[in-house]
Amino acid sequence: MKNRIVNKISALYLGDQVQMHSGVASCINQKHAVQKLAVQFDHVVGNAEADPKHHGGLDRVLHHFPREHYGQYRRWDMMASFKDAPAMGENISTVGLNESQVNIGDIMQIGDVTLQVTQPRSPCFKLNLQFGHPEFALAMQKSKMCGWFYRVLSEGNIGCDDAIYRVDRVSDISVAQAMQIYFLPTFDAEQYQRLLQCSGLAQSWVNSLTRRISHQSIEDWQMRLYGKAE
């Protein structure tokens, strides 16, 4: 049975222009509002990623970010200047749906499109550059106010007036809990195994967690968080 969880999308965004942002190639400032997204299995028509190794791909076709998080980051003085959607580079913006209400593997219906939640956004140093704060990425990692990604199960169109329905729930770990587990400061094989059991988890996260368990250690996060080695 479908469960409607958002009555209406706040806004939809896309963009395919790559620009240099503080010396780093990015599409984050090229997103613009549209009335409709044409969603295919491997991409959104008219949308692009400057760094396909770390962004995009079948497990990250669409980025969903809660609009209200901008206000919280501003209240924490994490932005050098006023920024709002789509400054996170998101495709879908909503109010009233957050990382504690969405689980890894959730099947969503939006317009003609069926989607599956795959992972939280894993913050990187480009957000530090985007918002003019040297620890923005770390703040997102700790707060878990990160948004999430979808893979596409059926193609179609998403419109601004579409409601969001949850069609099925296949795990008991929320996006916020997944963020908490993945970024635990100390190695915890038991918690990693919990997360690995989530149906629908992004393959890159499966690979990373499996490597940690095999090596009995956590990878260095300095390059991702700050763009440089410790």
Automatic annotation (TrEMBL):
Domain (MOSC) ranges: 31-167
Superkingdom of the organism of origin: Bacteria
Pfam family for this entry, one: YiiM_3-alpha
PANTHER family: PROTEIN YIIM (PTHR30212)
The protein's name: MOSC domain-containing protein
Organism name: Shewanella aestuarii
